[in-house]
Amino acid sequence: MSATAARDIAPAPISAHERPSPLTRSRVRAAWAFVAPTLFVLALIAGWPLARTIWFSLTDANLNNLSDYAFIGFENYLVHDNGEWLGLLVDPEWWRSVWNTVWFTLVSVSIETVLGIVVALMLNAAFPGRGIMRAIILIPWAIPTVVSAKMWNWMLHDQFGVINDMLLRLGLIASPIIWTANPDTALWAVVMVDVWKATPFMALLILAALQMLPQDIYEAARVDGIHPVRVFFRVTLPLIRPALLVAVIFRALDALRVFDLIYVLTANSRDTMSMSAYARQQLVDFQEVGFGSAASTLIFLIIALLVVITIVVGRVRLSEDAQ
Amino acid sequence: MADVALKGVQKSFGSTKVIHGVDLEIRDGEFVVFVGPSGCGKSTLLRLIAGLEGITAGELCIDCERVNDLPPAKRGIAMVFQSYALYPHMNVYDNMAFGLELAKASKAEIDRRVRETARLLQIDALLDRKPRQLSGGQRQRVAIGRAIVREPKVFLFDEPLSNLDAALRVQTRIEIAKLHSDMKATMIYVTHDQVEAMTLADRIVVLNAGRIEQVGTPLELYHHPANLFVARFIGSPQMNLIQAEVTQTSPEGVQVRLPNGSTVITAVTSECIQRGESVTLGIRPDHVTVGRTGIVTGRIVLVEELGENHLLYTDTDDGTRLTARAPGDAKYEIGDAISLEFSGKFCHLFKSSGEALAPSQI
User: Fold this and answer.
1) Is A95 helix (H, G, I), strand (E, B) or coil?
2) PROSITE patterns attached here (chain B) (predicted)?
């Protein structure tokens, strides 16, 4: 999105031999004057911590004494020592947390996208009480994650949880399930709570896109007798795809950074540990600032890579449409 | 191709009644234009025929079949929308073919129909373009093409030209007229532009506040408006209207006295009018001429120079606004004193109820 905006406000390209007119130069100056405060703040709150993290990842810093550290190059990432490879890149715990995070992101964002579309389509239809419904549906999103995670923690509790109670009464399970501790169900439990929480956000973004759609084409489709399901797949879905892509990127970024939900629901369980939880464990629990910073840097690179891929793929497909 | 019949058709939105019982017979192959001011219900009436809105009461028949409860797709109609309603992400070909894909037509048949229609409308070079790469006129052609490929019994046009610029509007108007004469299809066309109505229609339906004011050929409406509303609505510039009083009735006509005291004998039947009754006299600007010893005198307040002739807007001495059409070579200026005259045989008389008096038979 920001790339598009930048392209829109950028002055027309000027050929080398042509001097920009005084008007163009004053507009460029004004543009820089407006952008400079943002750049400054960004450099301060994003650039500096990022640079520091990357720097620490190349050191053996420890939380005990942050002023005393030595530059060790890429040893936190990978080092050959006494005939075996050590470092983050060969740590199975790390790769397990990467896999957990990617799996969690793929599954939860997919479910949220499908459910979000369904909910948005429902809210887009005219029915009495629609305004109230729109407000109600946002409640899960409005609750702080820690609170909703704690709430679900109780609902999923193996002895006192309402979910086990209901399933037992319905006869669907024979004995209570330890949802958040059982390796088979723990990550699914996390996905379920995330879906519960984030679907309203998806639905809201998609609803906004749906409401931008021209109504006349739907009347044209009705006159032409095209089946509503076909209209959805051939007309609605292609038209909301750009907005859908933005929503998916937003959610995927959130999901890739997931920490609080998993931390509250399943503590430091290895079965559900995410990349962020891994980095936090190294940084805080083990006080390995250098190693934790290396993990954080890798998280940054992985997320950046995935976003770039998504945007490039999205733009290629969008520009196909434009032809 | 089919005829369309409306019998006592009514439409309410909640408790608001917008169509108050419309009776209308549209013959097979006829070009009928619904015309009226904004909010008169003309678009609603068209949407009722299309099936985009449900009919509250009454009966709608297309091709002698009652279609009240049929969905739009089963009524054998095709509609062209004011906003074109093209699918923005599909190219011209797909826009035209999309509605056919379910209509039990084979791929080859669809292809043939789309290309043939595109040739007819001269958009065959644009088939790969997206709507946003087209001009307004081209989009309108695609929208019309999309209607044609469906080979409907009845074409419905909802203000199809109102988003085009003036020159293109005239050109497209001519093309629609030609299309109608080539296809011999039944067409129902909604517009608020009386010039479009006059030039395109076999018959015009003038609507006002959900009721039909008059149905007739363009010239019937122009020469014999049934009431004040139609008289005001049809014709540009508007018909001049002067308050008058009946002073004498005779088989030849009705004599009325104008506010300034002069009298005119109008060629209308005196059967349902009495002396002393107050009436409205209507005279078209084309029939008002500048004379030496005119019926009314006044001062020019505005001159519109159109080239081939001038429109003179005049305030008469008694305060009535009169418009006259004068030759384009005449020199007039604002503030000039002027004397206007007109012949009684071109005058219309409207009773205080708004109803027009029929022309006398002489």
Assistant:
1) helix
2) ABC_TRANSPORTER_1 (PS00211), ABC_TRANSPORTER_2 (PS50893)
- Nearest-CA residue of chain B relative to A242? B89
Considering the domain boundaries, does residue A132 fall inside one? yes
How far does A309 lie from chain B, in Å, by closest CA? Answer: 24
Q: What is the pLDDT of residues B215-245, one digit of tens each?
A: 999 999 999 999 999 999 998 899 999 999 9
Q: What percent of chain A is modeled with pLDDT above 90? A: 46
pTM (2 decimals)? 0.79
**Residue B89 and residue B198 in one domain:** yes
Q: Which of B211, B232, B253 is the last residue of a domain?
A: B232
The parts of chain B modelled with pLDDT lower than 50 are none
All residues of chain B having their beta carbon less than 8 Å from the beta carbon of residue A220 are 79, 81, 85, 87, 99, 146
Number of domains in chain A: 1
- Residue B69 gets which letter from DSSP? T
Band of residue A8 on the pLDDT scale cut at 50, 70, 90: very low
Residue A290 tokens read as: 């250098």
Judging contacts by C-beta atoms under 8 Å, the chain B residues touching residue A216 are: 81, 83-85
Residue B219 identity (one-letter amino acid): L
Contacts of B85 in chain A (CB under 8 A): 214, 216-217, 219-220
Q: Indicate which CATH number applies to the domain containing B72.
A: 3.40.50.300
Complex prediction ipTM: 0.83
Strand order of the sheet with strand B186-191?
Answer: B77-80, B154-158, B186-191, B31-35, B203-208, B211-216
Please list, in sequence order, all residues whose beta carbon lies within 8 angstroms of the beta carbon of residue A167, skipping any fewer than 6 positions away.
Answer: A173, A177
Same-domain check for residues B227 and B331: no
pLDDT at A7: 46
Instruction: Give the nearest partner residue to B85 out of A219, A226, A234, using CB atoms.
Output: A219
Report if residue A150 sits inside a domain: yes
Rounded Cα–Cα distance for residues A27 and A31 (Å): 6
Segment B74-129, tens digit of pLDDT: 898 999 999 999 999 999 999 999 988 765 678 888 999 999 999 988 898 999 99
Please name the residue of chain B whose CA is at the shortest distance from the CA of residue A220. B85
Q: What is the pLDDT of residues A259-295, one digit of tens each?
A: 989 888 887 788 888 999 999 999 888 888 999 999 9
CATH number for the domain harbouring residue A157: 1.10.3720.10
Q: Which domain holds residue A212?
A: 93-287
Locate the chain A residue with the closest alpha carbon to B103: A225
What is the C-alpha separation between A246 and A177, in angstroms, rounded? 37
Q: Which of A217, A223, A238 has its CB closest to that of B73?
A: A223
